[in-house]
């Protein structure tokens, strides 16, 4: 699968993170990589990662740190969305799936709200 074939998947996933860019720090905004950090400094003096979207060889990865920090955010996630997970905070997609993307959008919103409540944002 080439990058052009999965570009629409990247664009749709980037659109999920894009609304939070104004309140976070945009670390990268490229054709194949979109990365957001919070202003909260961790013990290692580095900003706390919030989320990213990256085109890989044959899929697009959506990373969402709030679900790693607060795993209970995934308690109500559908089995279908959980099947897309790789590790504790990464979701991989090869095609656009509006049902899953809507759920991921709601999960991102909940994660942002939780980070805000914890004063990470």
Describe the structure.
The chain has a single domain (3-117), classed as Aspartate Aminotransferase, domain 1, CATH 3.90.1150. It contains 4 helices and 6 strands. It is globular. The model has no long low-confidence stretch (mean pLDDT 95). The chain has a 6-stranded antiparallel beta sheet. It has 121 residues and is α+β, with helices and mostly antiparallel strands.
Structural class: alpha+beta
Total number of domains:
1
Q: Please give the CATH class.
A: Alpha Beta
Helical content (DSSP H or I, runs of 4+)? 25-40%
Distance between the termini: 37 Å
Low-confidence stretches: none
Shape: globular
Give the averaged pLDDT, no decimals: 95
How many alpha or pi helices?
4
Our estimate of the beta-strand percent is: 25-35%
């Amino acid at each position: 699968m080439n990058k052009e074939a999965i570009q629409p998947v990247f664009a749709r996933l980037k659109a999920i993170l894009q609304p939070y860019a104004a309140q976070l720090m945009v670390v990268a905004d490229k054709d194949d990589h979109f990365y957001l950090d919070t202003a909260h400094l961790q013990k290692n003096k580095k900003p706390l990662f919030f989320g990213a979207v990256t085109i890989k060889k044959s899929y697009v990865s959506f990373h969402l740190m709030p679900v790693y920090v607060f795993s209970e955010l995934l308690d109500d996630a559908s089995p279908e969305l959980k099947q897309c997970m790789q590790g504790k905070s990464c979701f991989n997609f090869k095609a656009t799936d509006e049902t899953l993307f809507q759920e991921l959008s709601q999960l991102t919103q909940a994660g942002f709200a939780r980070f805000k409540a914890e004063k990470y944002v």
